[in-house]
């Protein structure tokens, strides 16, 4: 067989990985892990359960980060050995294995490189994602449900734990809105580039035959901040409504008034939760999201800037970030980065890595300009 020569590709990977190691600062990371491990080993740690959970969560996150970096370094060394053995033994199977590992390593290093760009104040935090149907009637409600499934499938692929906190179903099909939590490190930094208005163009399955329909849905992403629980909300500033949780078509799925809607009167912010089993659980979940939104609002006002994180998203023409075409050309295109793919079915099944990677790099360039 012809000698396998992928030395240039390996050298490029090593150069990129060296930059990643410099940003991550492996020695500093090891020191943080040692400090957190010592704190986690204290016998009185669990006297304060909230602090204990914070410490153990941070320790797990740092350990995972270190494992990813050291794992890449080891795999790069192993790949060079595999190439050498394949050439010495003239083994085509070993050569094929080396090419496959080069491809996998390239994807891993690319993902690590993108994560090093997530250096914003809130980027490392879990996220709360809300999807709302916009202009477009029944098609918009159906589109909102398609986006909900898309993001849940993406999180499933990545191994991100999710919890659907609230779903408001539309009368005919789809959903009016849905809110879910993504409890994973860097969930906010990763998913925040998805915030904005999404546009769907297709032949409507709900209207007249062969009639093209354009519909919109809004995606809002906010960070779930621990310090948000310190935000005090006076009882006289909120209105709490309880109602029965409902499923598709408005049919009752509960026999008690367990769903909760909290309205913050001074700001008009409304948060509703209905997917927990009890009214107490739904109220606690709604308060947590409300506190996070109020903390964001407070910080934005102090900085004299208007909703950069959650955004003021109208779900209509003029502020869309991505278009999905399900007729003719079959295309999904991001209007900020110009990244596009010709397989909408794969995108709606959660294949969002390319869009999110391009979005994070675009945001970083925009911030640096």
CATH class of the largest domain: Alpha Beta
CATH architecture of the largest domain: 2-Layer Sandwich
CATH fold field value of the largest domain: Alpha-Beta Plaits
- Order of helices and strands, N to C? HHHHEHEEHEEEEEHEEEHH
Q: What is the global morphology?
A: globular
Q: Main sheet, how many strands, which sense, barrel?
A: 8 strands, mixed
Strand content: 15-25%
Q: Give helix % range.
A: 40-55%
Distance between the termini: 50 Å
How many structural domains can be distinguished in the coordinates?
2
Question: What topology emerges from the helices and strands here?
Answer:
Elements: H1 7-24, H2 26-40, H3 49-89, H4 92-116, E1 127-133, H5 137-158, E2 162-169, E3 175-182, H6 187-191, E4 196-203, E5 212-223, E6 238-243, E7 259-264, E8 269-273, H7 279-302, E9 320-325, E10 331-334, E11 340-341, H8 344-348, H9 353-368
Parallel strand pairs: 4-9
Antiparallel strand pairs: 1-3, 1-5, 2-3, 4-5, 6-7, 7-8, 9-10, 10-11
Helix pairs in contact: 1-3, 1-4, 2-3, 3-4
Give a short summary of the structure.
The protein is an alpha+beta fold and 369 residues long.
Describe the protein in words.
The structure is a single chain. The protein has 369 residues and is α+β, with helices and mostly antiparallel strands. It has two domains: 7-116, Release factor (Methane Monooxygenase Hydroxylase, Chain G, domain 1), CATH 1.20.58.410; 127-368, Alpha-Beta Plaits. It is built from nine helices and eleven strands. The chain has helices spanning 7-24, 26-40, 49-89, 92-116, 137-158, 187-191, 279-302, 344-348, 353-368, and strands at 127-133, 162-169, 175-182, 196-203, 212-223, 238-243, 259-264, 269-273, 320-325, 331-334, 340-341. It has an eight-stranded mixed sheet. Strand 4 (196-203) and strand 5 (212-223) form a beta hairpin. The relative contact order is 0.11. Mean pLDDT is 86; it is low at 249-253.
């Amino acid at each position: 067989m012809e000698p396998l020569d992928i030395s240039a590709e390996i050298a490029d990977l090593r150069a990129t990985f060296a930059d990643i190691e410099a940003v991550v600062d492996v020695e500093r990371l090891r020191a943080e892990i040692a400090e957190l491990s010592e704190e986690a080993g204290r016998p009185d740690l669990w006297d304060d359960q909230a602090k204990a959970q914070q410490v153990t969560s941070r320790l797990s996150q740092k350990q995972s980060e270190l494992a990813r970096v050291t794992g890449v370094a080891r795999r790069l060394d192993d790949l060079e050995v595999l190439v050498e053995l394949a050439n010495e033994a003239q083994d085509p199977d070993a050569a094929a294995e080396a090419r496959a590992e080069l491809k996998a390593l390239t994807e891993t290093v690319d993902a690590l490189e993108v994560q090093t760009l997530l250096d914003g104040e809130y980027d490392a935090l879990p996220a709360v994602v809300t999807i709302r149907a916009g202009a477009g009637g029944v098609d918009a409600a159906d589109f909102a449900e398609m986006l909900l499934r898309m993001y849940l499938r993406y999180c499933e692929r990545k191994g991100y734990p999710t919890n659907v906190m609230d779903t408001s179903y539309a009368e005919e099909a789809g959903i009016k809105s849905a809110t879910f939590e993504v409890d994973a490190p860097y969930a906010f930094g990763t998913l925040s580039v998805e915030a904005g208005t999404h546009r769907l163009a297709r032949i409507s399955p709900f209207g007249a035959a062969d009639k093209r329909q354009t519909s919109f849905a809004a995606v809002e992403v906010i960070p779930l901040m621990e310090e948000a629980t310190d935000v005090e909300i006076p009882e006289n500033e909120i209105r709490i409504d309880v109602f029965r949780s409902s499923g598709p078509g408005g049919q009752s799925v509960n026999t008690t008034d367990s769903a909760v809607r909290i309205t913050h009167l001074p700001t008009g912010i409304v948060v509703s939760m209905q997917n927990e089993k009890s009214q107490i659980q739904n109220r606690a979940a709604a308060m947590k999201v409300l506190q996070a939104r109020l903390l964001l609002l407070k910080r934005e006002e102090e900085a004299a800037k208007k909703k950069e994180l959650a955004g003021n998203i109208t779900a209509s023409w003029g502020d869309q970030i991505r278009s999905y075409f399900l007729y003719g050309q079959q295309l999904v295109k991001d209007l900020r980065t110009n990244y596009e793919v010709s397989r909408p079915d794969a995108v709606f099944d959660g294949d969002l890595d390319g869009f999110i990677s391009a979005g994070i790099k675009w945001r970083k360039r925009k911030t640096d300009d």
